[in-house]
């Protein structure tokens, strides 16, 4: 999965640097398995996505990135990302004052659950929620480095929980744009998702 994600960014010569953020105690990663792909490894991951992204931003700064530079944050658990999707995001946002994210309009009917009567019991539907105007966030998410760092540090200082970079940007009063993504860029979350990822990607590792 990681190879597919890194290969998509490697194919985009527009980027000056790609940083792979790992946990300090990660003993599974073997860079020799990734051939000639261009990326740097930094073991600056934290206990949350929030902390890991901040560590990655600091690493980019050490590579010479400036606050005014664009940075794209991507989940390694989304191996379906493609160079075409990355370039579509960059092209749509390159002149935007804020930035934005890949996302898809919600197509499914949404149900809010009622707490189960007892532990381990089945959840019940409390109500049906309107899906009008709702989008499912994906990655990459693209913002200026300094703006994103400020937003994440502000959320951290306030004890606010942010589940993606866009929500941190929203907290400081800014409005990220929505750029249409793709179903193939889904997040591998459940065991059965691996078979779905293989169906999208095929069994052959990208060159």
From TrEMBL:
GO terms for biological process: isopentenyl diphosphate biosynthetic process, methylerythritol 4-phosphate pathway. It comes from the Bacteria. Pathway: Isoprenoid biosynthesis; isopentenyl diphosphate biosynthesis via DXP pathway; isopentenyl diphosphate from 1-deoxy-D-xylulose 5-phosphate: step 2/6. GO terms for molecular function: 2-C-methyl-D-erythritol 4-phosphate cytidylyltransferase activity. The keyword Ribonucleoprotein does not apply. Its EC number is 2.7.7.60. CDD domains: CDP-ME_synthetase. Keywords: Isoprene biosynthesis, Nucleotidyltransferase, Transferase. It catalyses: 2-C-methyl-D-erythritol 4-phosphate + CTP + H(+) = 4-CDP-2-C-methyl-D-erythritol + diphosphate. Transmembrane segments: none annotated. InterPro entries: IspD, IspD/TarI, IspD/TarI_cytidylyltransf_bact, ISPD_synthase_CS, Nucleotide-diphossugar_trans. Catalyzes the formation of 4-diphosphocytidyl-2-C-methyl-D-erythritol from CTP and 2-C-methyl-D-erythritol 4-phosphate (MEP). HAMAP family: IspD. Belongs to the IspD/TarI cytidylyltransferase family. IspD subfamily. This is 2-C-methyl-D-erythritol 4-phosphate cytidylyltransferase. It comes from Pandoraea horticolens. The gene is ispD.
């Amino acid at each position: 999965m990681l190879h597919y994600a890194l290969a998509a960014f490697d194919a985009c010569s527009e980027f000056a640097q790609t940083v792979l953020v790992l946990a300090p105690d990660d003993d599974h990663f073997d860079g020799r398995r990734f051939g000639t792909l261009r990326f740097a490894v930094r073991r600056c991951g934290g206990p949350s996505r929030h902390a890991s992204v901040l560590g990655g931003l600091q690493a980019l700064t050490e590579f010479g990135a400036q606050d005014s530079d664009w940075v794209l944050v991507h989940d390694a658990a989304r191996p379906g990302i493609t160079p075409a999707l990355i370039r579509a995001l960059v092209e749509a946002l390159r002149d935007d004052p804020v930035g934005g994210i890949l996302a898809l309009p919600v197509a499914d009917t949404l149900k809010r659950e009622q707490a189960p009567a007892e532990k381990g019991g089945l959840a019940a539907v409390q109500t049906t929620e309107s899906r009008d105007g709702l989008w499912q966030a994906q990655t990459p998410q693209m913002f200026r480095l300094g703006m994103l760092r400020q937003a994440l540090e502000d959320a951290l200082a306030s004890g606010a929980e942010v589940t993606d970079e866009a929500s941190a940007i929203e907290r400081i009063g800014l409005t990220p744009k929505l750029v249409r993504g793709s179903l193939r860029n889904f997040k591998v979350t459940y065991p059965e998702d691996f078979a779905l990822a293989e169906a999208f990607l095929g069994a052959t590792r990208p060159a």
